[in-house]
Design brief:
alpha+beta; 8 strands; 45% helix; four-stranded antiparallel beta sheet
Amino acid sequence: MSTKRSIRELKASDALRRRGISGLGARMRRLAAHERRWMTSLGLWLARRTDGVGGADVAVGYARAQAPTAYGLIFVFVVETVGVSFMLAEYPVAHLLMLFLDLYTVCLVVGLHAAAVTRPHVVGPGGLRVRRGAALDLWIPLERIASARYDLRIPDANKSQDGVLEVAIASQTSITVELVRPVITLSFWGTPREVHTVRCHADEPRAAVAAINRLLPIDG
């Protein structure tokens, strides 16, 4: 990602922080954008491609930990789809309605996992891009990163720390990134939030930390 793009995104984030995002229309647009992202990810997955990884970038995967759960859910929903179809065969309207909902659910679960596979974290010359499938895409410029370290944690879902963003996969994070200055992140519905610490997960966390630290200036 270019420096110009990062500056544009920071300006946009600061503007969002000042005015916030509210209203049903804005929420529906964000939901539609989320739907587009996971649907696009299905195509990328089939084509064995990734999103937003340039030639000088390092892709940092994080989907491995959630794969067993994702595939288990897909199997359960496929079995349910077949079973419900047989049960409602004599009720055409109900059969078509439930078939649509069940197929959508299967596609959604596959698409969300595909998004996690095809939208990895990205370490590049300009900074760090932290992602969680189709739901989160946070750009952290290199100059805002103070340190990155391997730090295996199991976050408490009932507790949240001020200024700390936890991007857990399979209920765990393995990398902690401390920032010199905070960045703005948006919730799923667009609520802006300032964070000074980002915790995320990677399939190979130590290699990811090494890739980030190679780009940081050496003190002294």
